[in-house]
Structures are given as structure tokens and as C-alpha cells.
């Protein structure tokens, strides 16, 4: 398989271990194993630690331990452990599903901009991928009528992501239901990347129920990476009809075989105490959103954003006449701040920001960003004549990320 370069991942790996203020991250700030154990009631903590230390590090149950799959299954309706395949992050679940479900020449409709994998794998397979665009001029709202015009009797798969990376857009429960009905009427499947599940904005809109709950045409992909600050466990999953899970598992035999045993055990602990982790997440997000709102208000002459409706991500728009890649590189190299270039998503004059970072780092990252923008202006970089921060109008720089 020949596949396009994953623009954002390549850029992130250049800087993510080098900068001090990573405010581009798509997840909530990571927990240590000690912090994870601390959320357990004291009487459970010691036993849990002893169990972890005594765990033989052999191969684990290939589809994920029965306990982990049962815990995950219980978060969906009419779903048992046979409907769950634990994978190496949501990224592996998406990869397996796209490879199993699609043939060269198939028609796919996939949200764009997006986490690049969602369109790129289908393109690499040789599918015809029609983008369903979230447009800046509509504040990145999903336009369902447009989708209805894109889906044809040849469409085999519709790919959505809600809450959305990178815009923070969301599909309501009713909208997701309408897409599900469209998929069923067309004879297509609906793959819903729910990597940002459990990430409701504090005091904000409720997230749609997972697509798996609607029936067998819907496939949910989930992960512990984003909502719980556990990306290092590399634990993701798919929730799907048992026959589809079985075929994906058979393909996985050739890729990663099974989850790490210790990771599976830590994932069980995390899921058993999911509510505590959600509380932690909500506290961090609420604090960062307040910091961000105040910062955007203070610097309204050069920056603006549409705050996330769900999840952790949004696009920061800036008025300076400098390409996003150049600005992001400068921020990283000279100010030790990471904000991801919008060009990686095909949206120029934007930077992707994540509100999941530790609040002190987030606040300093924003102050340094303001300093960078002021220094650039002092150095002669002016405002773009066409920049209108009042409108959500970043310049589109072509379809797929480069
Ligand atoms: C929409 C989306 N899906 C999937 C992933 C992959 O997440 P992981 O493999 O860490 O579970 C990401 C990571 O950024 C993402 O944003």
C-alpha cells in the first residue's frame, strides 16, 4: 500500500518532545501510573498495585482481555464482549476497519478537514473518496443536506468524527440518527470515530449517543487516549457486529497481534473508575476554557476562535500575514510553544489548539504565543488586508493535507 504522508503526525513528532508548552495536543494531559492508582479507593489501591506487579508479562488475550471487553461493551447498548476488539489505539481500529470494509473503486464519503487517517487510508486502498466539508464560513457546522447530495447508491461507507478534530464541531444525536438512516437506506455502513467521547464541554451540549447504539450499520471507534489522558497505554477499540469484529481480528493477527498485557490491566482500572477520570478531565477543560476566553478577548485584534462545542480541539484564527507552518515552526523553535499548523488540515491562517493541557502550561503557552505575535508585528509582519477575525474565514488551501 502506498499512502500519503500523515502531515500532522510528521510535524508533531518534530517538536512534541522538545517544546515546553505543547498546547496543540489533542488529548487531556497524561496521567502517571501513580495518579491512576490514586483515583482508586485506598483499600483497592494496594491490592491493585500488588496485582499489577505480580502480572506475568506474557501475551494477553488477543482481542483484549474478557474483562476489558466486557467493561467496554457495557458502555454501549445491546453489545457484548464479542462485539469489541481492543486495538492499538483508535488508529489501529480505524485502519483495520477501513481495510476490511473497503475495496479499490468503492465510493466513500468522509468528513474533511479531519484526522488525516480517515480519508487517507481509503484513498490508499484505491477508493473514490468524496469529502464532506466542514466549512469555516458556516462556523464548521455539519451540513446534512450537503451530505445527502454526496451519498450515492454506490457509497459503501460514510466516515464521520464527532466531536471533531480539528474544529470542535459536533453532530447532535438527531443529526447522527439522520446519517445512520441515510447509511441504512443506501446500504452503506457508518464509521463514527468517537475518539473524543466522554469529552462534553462543562456546562455545554450533551454528546450524541455512540453510533453502535443505533444498530449494526453503525461502527463506533473509541480510545482511552483523549478523554482520560492515557495515550501511552495505546488502548483503543471498535464496537461493531461480531462478524465484522472477527474479520478485523483476523487481519490484526498480521499487524499487532494483541494489546500489551500491562496496558490492558491499567485500562481495566481506568474504566472501572471512569467517572473519577471524567471529573479530572472536566476540571482541566473548564479552567483552560476560561483562560482561553480571557486571552482571546485580550488579543481580539490578532486572534479569534470558535470554542469547541465538544471534545478538546478548536482552530485559532490569526490575522497576521504569515503562513501557518512558518508561524507554528517559529512558535516551536523560538518560543517553545506547540500549536499545530492549520495547513496540515488544509486551512491556512489557523493553528489547532487543544484545551486539555495542564492549566499552568496552557496559560503560559498562550502568553508566549501572544509575545510571538507581538514580536512578529514589531518585526514588520502586518495584518492581512483580507483578514476578518469576526468571520470564521480561514483561507482554504486545497482539499487534502500535504
Ligand atoms: C479523530 C481521531 N481518531 C483517532 C485518533 C488516534 O488516537 P489513538 O490511536 O491514540 O487512540 C486521533 C488522535 O489524534 C484522533 O484525533
Contiguous helical run count: 14
Q: Kindly report how far apart the N and C termini lie.
A: 18 Å
Helix and strand run: HEHHHEHEHEHEHEEHEHHHEEHEEEEHE
Number of domains: 2
CATH architecture of the largest domain: 3-Layer(aba) Sandwich
* Overall mean pLDDT: 95
CATH topology of the largest domain: Aspartate Aminotransferase, domain 2
Which residue ranges are poorly predicted, with pLDDT under 50 across at least 5 consecutive positions? Answer: 392-402
Helix content: 40-55%
Question: How would you describe this protein?
Answer:
The chain has about 400 residues and is of the alpha/beta class. It has 2 domains: about 150 residues, Alpha-Beta Complex (Aspartate Aminotransferase, domain 1); about 220 residues, Aspartate Aminotransferase, domain 2, CATH 3.40.640.10. Helices cover about 40% and strands about 15% of the residues. It has a 7-stranded mixed β-sheet, with helices on both faces. Strands 9-10-14-12 form a 4-stranded antiparallel β-sheet. The C terminus is likely disordered. Pyridoxal-5'-phosphate binds next to helix 5. The site of pyridoxal-5'-phosphate has 13 residues, from helix 5.
Amino acid at each position: 500500500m502506498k499512502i500519503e504522508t500523515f502531515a500532522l503526525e510528521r510535524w508533531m513528532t518534530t517538536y512534541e518532545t522538545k517544546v515546553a508548552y505543547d498546547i496543540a495536543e489533542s488529548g487531556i494531559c497524561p496521567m502517571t501510573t501513580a495518579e491512576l492508582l490514586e483515583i482508586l479507593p485506598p483499600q483497592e489501591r494496594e491490592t491493585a498495585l500488588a496485582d499489577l506487579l505480580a502480572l506475568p508479562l506474557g501475551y494477553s488475550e488477543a482481542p483484549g482481555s474478557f474483562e476489558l471487553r466486557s467493561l467496554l461493551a457495557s458502555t454501549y447498548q445491546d453489545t457484548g464482549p464479542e462485539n469489541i476488539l481492543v486495538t492499538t489505539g483508535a488508529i489501529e481500529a480505524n485502519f483495520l476497519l477501513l481495510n476490511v470494509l473497503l475495496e479499490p473503486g468503492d465510493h466513500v464519503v468522509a468528513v474533511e478537514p479531519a484526522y488525516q487517517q480517515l480519508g487517507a487510508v481509503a484513498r490508499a486502498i484505491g477508493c473514490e473518496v468524496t469529502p464532506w466539508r466542514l466549512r469555516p464560513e458556516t462556523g464548521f457546522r455539519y451540513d446534512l443536506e450537503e451530505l445527502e447530495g454526496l451519498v450515492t447508491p454506490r457509497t459503501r461507507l460514510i466516515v464521520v468524527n464527532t466531536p471533531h478534530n480539528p474544529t470542535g464541531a459536533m453532530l447532535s444525536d438527531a443529526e447522527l440518527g439522520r446519517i445512520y438512516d441515510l447509511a441504512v437506506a443506501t446500504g452503506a455502513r457508518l464509521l463514527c470515530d468517537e475518539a473524543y467521547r466522554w469529552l462534553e464541554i462543562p456546562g455545554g451540549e450533551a454528546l450524541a449517543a455512540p453510533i453502535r447504539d443505533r444498530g449494526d450499520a453503525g461502527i463506533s471507534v473509541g480510545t482511552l487516549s483523549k478523554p482520560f489522558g492515557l495515550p501511552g497505554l495505546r488502548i483503543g477499540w471498535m464496537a461493531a457486529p461480531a462478524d465484522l469484529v472477527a474479520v478485523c481480528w483476523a487481519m490484526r493477527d498480521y499487524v499487532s497481534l494483541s494489546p500489551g498485557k500491562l496496558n490492558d490491566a491499567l485500562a481495566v482500572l481506568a474504566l472501572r473508575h471512569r467517572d473519577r477520570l471524567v471529573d479530572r478531565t472536566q476540571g482541566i477543560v473548564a479552567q483552560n476554557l476560561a483562560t482561553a476566553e480571557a486571552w482571546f478577548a485580550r488579543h481580539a485584534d490578532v486572534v479569534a476562535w470558535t470554542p469547541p462545542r465538544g471534545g478538546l480541539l478548536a482552530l485559532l484564527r490569526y490575522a497576521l500575514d504569515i503562513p501557518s507552518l512558518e508561524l507554528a515552526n517559529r512558535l516551536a523553535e523560538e518560543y517553545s510553544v506547540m500549536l499545530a499548523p492549520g495547513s496540515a488540515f488544509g486551512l491556512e491562517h489557523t493553528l489547532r489548539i487543544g484545551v486539555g493541557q495542564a492549566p499552568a502550561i496552557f496559560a503560559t503557552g498562550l502568553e508566549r504565543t501572544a509575545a510571538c505575535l507581538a514580536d512578529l508585528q514589531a518585526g514588520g509582519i502586518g495584518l492581512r488586508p483580507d483578514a476578518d477575525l469576526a468571520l470564521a474565514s480561514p483561507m482554504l488551501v486545497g482539499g487534502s493535507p500535504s
